[in-house]
User: Fold this.
Amino acid sequence: MKKIVILSGAGMSAESGILTFRDMGGLWEKYRIEEVASPIAWRNNPQLVLDFYNTRRKQLLEVEPNSAHYDLVKLEKYFEVEIVTQNVDDLHERAGSSNVLHLHGELRKVRSELNEYLVSEFDGWELKLGDLASDGNQLRPHIVWFGEAVPMINQAVEIVQTADILIIIGTSLAVYPAAGLRHEAPSHCKVYYIDPNAGEMSLPNVVCMAEKASVATKELVQELIKEMH
Assistant:
């Protein structure tokens, strides 16, 4: 069975109504992302950081997976599929994808501020100062912040190295180390890049599909399944 690896970014979730930091407006217009998403921010103003992620978590609970998420699930009937996502939402899982690796953490999980391995599910949306992990330390969002290492990157590299087909969806290919993952694909691997701005990029040996995720994913999934019949 051929293996498909999918690298997904913010453009994958945008059509579900997930707002990026720049789109969130209101209170957050006053801040730079580093002021709400870094270890220094957490030390200086943990309440502000919690407010930011509570806003995002609440918003996540109000949206649903979009057709692109569901189309990717259809591939699992015909291929071995693994998803490596830069997104911290759980929309891939809610759509039914079986194998999802989150590079930058997960919004619906929390962890001890002193032990990154002490991670737990978080069902609600409001995390408060005084909410403690089982080791007695404050819980923080289970998110990889600016200035922190990306612990899953080596696992992601290993996954991409096993791909027969690599599909990159909704990412600018500008955020490292995630952007470097496509270079790990084996030489025989066929690569597709789905993004509204894909046409502006000339990537060697890459099929660029300059469409939003829902349109191009549907088209590509149908094509790949058709090739299997």
The CA atoms of residues 164 and 189 lie 5 Å apart. Residues 213-228 form the longest helix (16 residues). The chain has a mean pLDDT of 93.
